[in-house]
Amino acid sequence: MYHLDERNSEIEMTIDGGDQEGVFADALLALGDVFSDAAAASGRPVTHEVQLKAGDVAGLFAAWIGELVELAEAQGFVPERVEKLNLEGTSLVALVAGERGIDQDLIKAVASHRTEMGVLEDATWSASIVLDLGR
Q: What's the pTM?
């Protein structure tokens, strides 16, 4: 489950519940909603393999969002689903599917210094990240 809070020139994404993989998958869906709301056209189906490593889980989460934003900017990629996701510690290998060819310049930067991710008292995972908008 995710929540998007847009204010001024940023969007805060908050993802709660489930396991760590579910938080990463829900973050992709949230980002896809952000881009879909900004896009008027539909593109061609495409998949991308993503491989990332980081120093900690919050850094890995920020790198995940950053990679999806980079794909959006460079290739007009709007993520729609995670077809495969393998998390091992602070490494990630994923296959993501969506559409390409949709112009995206909405997000200016991922505020990785404003990223949090961790396990809650009920053993579910939670994450939040701030996206700086280009408007």
A: 0.89
